[in-house]
Every structure is written in structure tokens, then in C-alpha cells.
Amino acid sequence: MKRSIADFDFLDSFEHLGSHELDTNCKNKLDLFILKMNSNDFDYISLKEKLLDPMIDFSLSRKVREKYADKPGTLAAKAREKFVEYVNNKGELGELLLYCFLETHLKAPKLLSKLELKTSTSHYVNGSDGVHFLKLVDGGYQLIFGESKTIKGLTAAITDAFKSISEFKSCTNSKGNKKSGLPYEKGLISDHLEKETFSEEERQFVERIIYPNRNDDIEVDDAFGIFVGYEITVSGDDKKLSNKDCRIKVKEQINTEIKSSFAHVIKKIEEYDLCGHNFYIYVLPFTDLNKNRSLIQEGISK
Predict the structure, then answer these.
(1) CA nearest 12: which of 40, 38, 41, 46?
(2) Bridge partners of 148?
């Protein structure tokens, strides 16, 4: 099954600072990206441009995209309709970025994004941010459920992400009340298969990995993809450095911050009894988070 993003242009906006295995069993992986810098600041304009096409792929089903393939203006308008007013919602940029990283970096095709299910710009859909699948080298598969957090504090963003995943898995919220979770999410995928342009063979395959039966030798495990966007500060003195020295200084600062968070990630996995799952974590720092998040969301939704 093909990925919904046809190319890897999205990754051109970033520099990959490293991929880190957080445990000895290589189950938990953190990939650190930063936006490329231009004149001692992150290049948000480049990211905004690189998100225009993926936003369409993220927002609309394959069937809708195929229907309007010869009408790019109409297609773009339908995708923008799915976005909540950018000033009122802080979450959708993280959801879109997670989708892009899972499709282009992890090469895990999308099965469903929650934005596809929105019937109006003011309609929110609870649950995971989207569902992807990944074929493993050992022949098995993973269903990857997405969770994104864009919060100023790195530790707070990590904490909130794992808290949400714990509630999603247990189908209860922090007050002990029932909420939608894994079973509901898998049902959504099955119920919306007709909205995709899957062949009959692809449709049967998706059903198999959602609901493996006793006569099937397919092995499927639930995993989670996490996007964490947090805020960093580049000091006035650092901005006065040469472009080369500023890049070096900012990268050192970010690497130090991220490495100090590894123990907290493992602590939350153990605290919420999530050790059986694989986690694919993508971290991206922002300067002036609220301002630049709004700048990007405005650019791709208007």
C-alpha cells in the first residue's frame, strides 16, 4: 500500500540532529529534528510552503483527492475547510507535522486521520490524531496511533503526551470516566474503508491487520507515534554571532535539552505501564511557539 504523501520534500525543511534508541531493546526511538536556519533564525516560511501539499493529503481521503485530482483549486479549498480557525486551535499543526514525519521519515502509510472525519471547522474529534501502519523487517505489522503536543515546556509536553496515551489505551479519562479508546479507533478505520480508493486486496489487508483472526498467521501490535513541539529561546547574544557559530550554538543547546529528557520519557512509559508498546517520538523545537505556530497555521489554512 502506497503512502499518501508522494515525495519527501517535507523533510527538506529540516536538519536531522539524530536518532536515539532510549532502551536496550530498541523499542523506543526518539528522532530530533530542527528547522534549517536562515540568518540566525529558524526558517518558518520554508516549512509553511512545504506543508501546503501534505495538508491536502492529511485532510482528505484518497477517494476525495482522486475525485478532484484535475481541480487543484477545489481540492485545496476542501482541505482548508477541514481546518479549525488557526487562532482557536493549538493542536492541528502538531497533528499535521506528526502525520508528515510518520509518512516520510518512518515510511508508515496513513490509514485514517481525524481531520478527515470533521464535518465543520468547529467540530473536534476525540481520540488519537491519526492511525498509520508499519510493516516490520521480521514480517510483522504495527498499528501506530498518533498523539501530538505543542507546549512551551519540553517536560510538560512529554508528560501530557503519555498521559493522553494512557487514557486512550485504558478508555478512561483522568476522572475515571469512560472515553473512546483503541477499540473505538479500530472500528473507525473499518467503518471508513469505503472512503478510500483501496483495491479489494488492500481493503482485505487493512481488515486483517485491524482484526486478526485465529486462522491468520499475521502478527500485529499496537504502537504509538508522538510529536512534541516545544519552545526554546535563542538569546540576543547568540543572534549576534556569525551564522555558522549561531547554528553550532543552537544545535548544542537543543541536543543538551533533548538528552536530558530521555530519562523522563522512560519514566512515563513505566509509570503508565506502557512498556509493551513501541514508541516513535519526533521532537521539534520552536522559537516564540505561539507566534510561529499561528504564522504557519494561517499560511496553510487561508
Answers:
(1) 46
(2) 227
Query: pLDDT of 96-110, one tens digit each?
Result: 999 999 999 999 998
State pLDDT tens for residues 14-70: 999 999 999 888 899 999 999 999 999 999 999 999 999 999 888 887 888 888 989
Residue 256, pLDDT > 90, answer yes
User: What are the CA-CA distances from residue 4 to residues 122, 136, 146, 156, 198 (Å)?
Assistant: 25, 19, 16, 32, 12
Give the cell for residue 83: 481546518
How far apart are the C-alpha atoms of 46 and 196, rounded to whole Å? 30
Pairwise CA distance, residues 68 & 70, whole Å? 5
Rounded Cα–Cα distance for residues 271 and 280 (Å): 18
- Alpha carbon 289 to its chain centroid, in Å, reads 17
Q: Does residue 107 come out as left (phi exceeding 0), alpha (psi in the -120 to 50 range) or beta?
A: left
pLDDT bin (cut points 50, 70, 90) of residue 218 is confident
Q: What is the pLDDT of residues 69-84, one digit of tens each?
A: 899 899 888 888 876 5
- CA dist., res. 187 & res. 128, Å (int): 13
Q: How far apart are CA 139 and CA 238, in angstroms?
A: 48
What are 102's three cell numbers?
Answer: 510518520
Residue 136 contacts by C-beta under 8 Å, 6 or more apart in sequence?
A: 142
| Average pLDDT, rounded, for the chain | 86
The conformational region for residue 96 under phi > 0 = left, psi -120 to 50 = alpha, else beta, is alpha
